[in-house]
Amino acid sequence: MKVISSLKRRTLLKGTAAATAVSVVGCASQVATSPRPRVVVVGGGWGGLGAVRTLAAGGKVDITLIEPNDGFMSCPLSVLYIAGYAPASNFQRSYGAVDALGVRPVKDRVVDIDRAGRTVKTATQSIPYDFLVLATGLEYMEEALPGLAAAREQFPVGFRAFEQSAVQRQVAAFLEQGGNFIISVPKPPYRCPPAPYERACLIAQRMKEKATKGKIIVVDANKHPMPPPMARPMETAMREMYGSQIEYITEADPKSIDAGRKVLSTSKGDIAFNHANIIPPMRAPGLIRKAGLGERFATIELPTFQSKADKNVFIIGDSQGSPLPKSGHIAFGTGQQVGAQILATVDGKYREADLGDEVTLPAAICWGKVSTSLAIMINVNASVAVGDPPKIRYEVDQTANATSSKGAIDWGNSIWHAMLG
Ligand SMILES: Cc1cc2nc3c(=O)[nH]c(=O)nc-3n(C[C@H](O)[C@H](O)[C@H](O)COP(=O)(O)OP(=O)(O)OC[C@H]3O[C@@H](n4cnc5c(N)ncnc54)[C@H](O)[C@@H]3O)c2cc1C
Question: Which amino acids bring their CB within 6 angstroms of ligand 1?
């Protein structure tokens, strides 16, 4: 089995070899007019930072990072902030370390991609590229739940960086006032499947400590907690640790929400609430669809993460539509892999294809914290052979435990350091 990041043993899928050779030739003619190949990375989250760090270490390309936020905030582990156990600053980093690498920062949002002209556009400028890496994360499909979009201020989701503060305020109000707090869970694919249950558990722990009168109602569109390999330990933790705080309703599909009456209508009937954390279905941002790169998610080739529509465009992280889980660990690893592929292409090594191999894909590690001292770990390893769907293997803790809880914090500190020092 080959590991794609080992570029001495590079990789190309059969179906893409010819197209890539053409694109490399195409790039070479552009490269001749430019001192160094230009790589534009859109999105300074987990995937984008993996790409930028690897590209910068290669020292052979000009890198532009386009990101509207002033800094980085981690979603992983930020439940500790949301539930009141840690300050937000524990999960935030500045982009200083990336700026120091000589990356050109553009604090803006890409609004359009001109693939024919190899240019991305913000509201104020056009930026040319030879290679484009899209790591734009997700947007919420608010239209899936009538009533949600009109009241979005009232229902912060908190599944994207910096949205956590609004959810933290909502949780703090619930912990003081009590009542019903709904957390709704969509059907997959959505970002970090264990995250809604983790959120419920940590808020429930806080309820116990503060003697909050009320309950958290987890309204799950699924039959069991997601992802399926984690269902048993997660359901056990919710039941055994928080039986008096969490009511778990399964196979309840949200149909509409009435923000005024504070009622969520579901396939299992109406549920009244005082506070609600509605987690809607998710998709890649509209930019991906507008550029013809996919529908709900971007359509890519594995193992290269190249767009099926355009070999000079790589789509990584949660925007891409492979069956890999939507995980920061995978996003970062994929960014590193794609960065290495681009450097190998620039070096002319990318066409040393070794077709037919089974290739190891970037791995995932996700944590379902169920209290400040216990967590359930899930490892996801995947490989892909030419033309086949990826083979995905899971290893899961059978019970929540203290080792994984410590492992989660150590993992966070080490991966944030790898991203931003
Ligand atoms: C509560 C929670 C817990 C989680 N726990 C774990 C965990 O334990 N382990 C794990 O591996 N993963 C976990 N995840 C998942 C992880 O956060 C995501 O998988 C990861 O953030 C995906 O990385 P990304 O680069 O695709 O997107 P993001 O990290 O969201 O980055 C996307 C970036 O693109 C920028 N952007 C978007 N559109 C544009 C545009 N048009 N122009 C310019 N910039 C743009 C955004 O501002 C953002 O900075 C968790 C997620 C949540 C919500």
Answer: 42-48, 66-69, 75-76, 79, 109-110, 135-137, 159-161, 191-192, 195, 285, 287, 317-319, 326-329, 331, 364, 366-367
pLDDT confidence band for 178 (50 / 70 / 90): very high
Separation CA 23–CA 309 (nearest Å): 12
pTM of the full structure? 0.93
Residue span(s) of the chain under CATH 3.50.50.60 come to 7-68+108-137+284-354, 143-281
Q: Which numbered atom of ligand 1 lies nearest the CA of 331?
A: 23
Task: Give the three-class secondary structure for 415.
Answer: helix
Q: What is the DSSP string of 70-84?
A: SEEE-STTTHHHHTT
Number of residues that make up the chain: 421
CATH of domain 143-281: 3.50.50.60
- CA of 133 from ligand 1 middle (Å) equals 15
Which of 67, 198, 199, 278 to mutate to test ligand 1, by most ligand atoms within 8 A of the CB atom?
67
> Can you tell me the distance from the alpha carbon of 61 to that of 29, in angstroms, rounded to the nearest whole number?
15
What is the whole-number distance in angstroms between the Cα of residue 178 and the centre of ligand 1? 31
**Superfamily the domain 7-68+108-137+284-354 falls into:** FAD/NAD(P)-binding domain (3.50.50.60)
pLDDT tens per residue, range 271-324: 999 999 999 999 999 999 999 999 999 999 999 999 999 999 999 999 999 999
Cα 163 to averaged position of ligand 1 atoms, centre (Å): 12
